[in-house]
Design goal:
The chain is α/β, with parallel strands linked by helices and about 250 residues long. It contains seven helices and eleven strands. The protein folds into two domains: about 1-100, 2-Layer Sandwich (Alpha-Beta Plaits); about 125-254, 3-Layer(aba) Sandwich (Rossmann fold), CATH 3.40.50. The chain has a five-stranded mixed β-sheet with strand order 8-7-9-10-11. Strands 1-4 form a two-stranded antiparallel sheet. A two-stranded antiparallel sheet has the order 2-3. The protein is rod-shaped, with a radius of gyration of 31 Å. InterPro entries: 4Fe4S_Fe-S-bd, Corrinoid_activation_enz.
Length: about 250
């Protein structure tokens, strides 16, 4: 079809690229330092590029050209947008990796390597004298320090324990195996655990929760916080409570 379309005089073009930015349809690009119309069907003939050209290298002509393909232009714009977003995300990720951690060392997020631990665990099962391995899978573990969007939460089974339980029950790490562990004391910590737990549940796909508490009454606060968090977040997932006595025995597990 014969229609109005832009024409670029390469001899006048100085390669400034202003027309490339002005063309919302991405019909123009710099090729070997000169502006060039890439596709006729990307040019809508409205000429947003004309007024920005400092050398008057762009003009209108009427010639045989493919009709403007708005649908194809929109698809191309989405592809460009996606590519730019992916590039930005990569640059941000690379930038974060280049910046040394400058916060509190105790709150730096990290996953644990359990290959050596598994080897030690197998040795222990074979009645060797090697120490039992730690079952801790992440850091930090303190409820107040852990970020609610830490990557290790997604798809995790949570172990939420009153911090005294690890000292009272000698084989505590068996509860921790294959779980993300959080510890705290509802009596001593000046914090609303329910809000923190609700945020963790809302931001991640948590599979289950195991709560370990001492038999003392103040430990009921950590159980109440978990119940409240599930109700407030609308995430009613499988959960159970294990109660440890002050002399280190399991009193109840349900």
């Amino acid at each position: 079809m014969i229609r109005k379309i832009i024409q670029i005089d390469e001899e006048l073009c100085n390669g400034c690229g202003l027309c490339v930015n002005a063309c919302h349809e991405a019909a123009i690009a710099l090729v070997e330092g000169k502006a060039k119309l890439l596709r006729d069907d990307y040019c809508d003939g409205l000429g947003n590029c004309l007024p920005v050209c400092p050398t008057n290298a762009i003009s209108f002509i009427e010639r045989e050209a493919l009709p403007f393909n708005e649908e194809e232009v929109m698809r191309n714009q989405e592809m460009i947008k996606k590519a730019l977003e992916e590039k930005k995300e990569k640059e941000q990720s690379d930038h974060k990796q280049d910046i040394p951690f400058s916060g509190c060392p105790g709150s730096r997020i990290r996953n644990m390597n359990h290959q050596a631990a598994a080897k030690t665990e197998n040795a222990e099962l074979n009645n060797t004298n090697e120490p039992a391995p730690s079952m801790l899978r992440q850091w930090p573990v303190q409820i107040q320090l852990v970020p609610v969007n830490a990557p290790y939460f997604d798809g995790a089974d949570l172990l939420i324990a009153a911090d005294c339980t690890a000292y009272a029950f000698g084989d505590f790490h068996r509860f921790m195996k294959n779980k993300i562990t959080l510890i705290g004391c509802p009596k001593l910590d000046d914090a609303d655990y329910a809000n923190k737990f609700a945020a963790i549940l809302s931001n991640n796909q948590i599979k289950s929760i195991t709560v370990i508490r001492m038999e003392v009454p103040c430990c009921g606060g950590i159980v109440h916080a978990v119940k409240t968090a599930m109700l407030n977040s609308g995430q009613m997932i499988p959960w159970k409570v294990i109660t440890i006595s002050t002399d280190g025995t399991v009193l109840d597990e349900n």
